[in-house]
Amino acid sequence: MPLPVRSRTRRLTVAAMTLACALILSYLESLVPLSFALPGMKLGLANVAIMFAFFRLGRTTALVVSLCRVLVTALLFGQASSFFFALLGALFSFFVLLFLSHLGDRISRIGISVACAAAHGVGQITAATILYGTFAMISYLPFLLFAALPFGALCGFLLILCERAVPGEVTD
Where are the alpha helices (H) located in 31-106, listed in sequence order? Predict the structure, then answer.
């Protein structure tokens, strides 16, 4: 049975630990070179922490954790343009997560994760289109959507393992 986090201090602590996990996962995935397959491709492991925060801490906390992760990751590891790509990818992914969460048990965690991974790719293509002022980047979208299948499924599977391993729930 889920255990509620009762104090503000404990809730903030759990959110901060989730953010720390997302940052660590972002760093670890930067060590896995997938650029040989598709330029800029990543596993999306930090999304496991964001989805975990969404389902365990609530949508508002998950959004704050996601935005903080994007900002801190860009400051530590990225460039100015990478912030915009990551921000739009994270926002697109979050809004798909928000929409799909209303379906309840009709869609699995793996299905949600794949959809979020695909939305992240659409967000990044949107960022590229805005930054570079051309629709030529849309030709890259099928490759990102195809990559969303295995990587999103992997993240969804990891989310299921995390939810089984860590009891408790806090909602907004």
Answer: 46-57, 59-77, 80-101
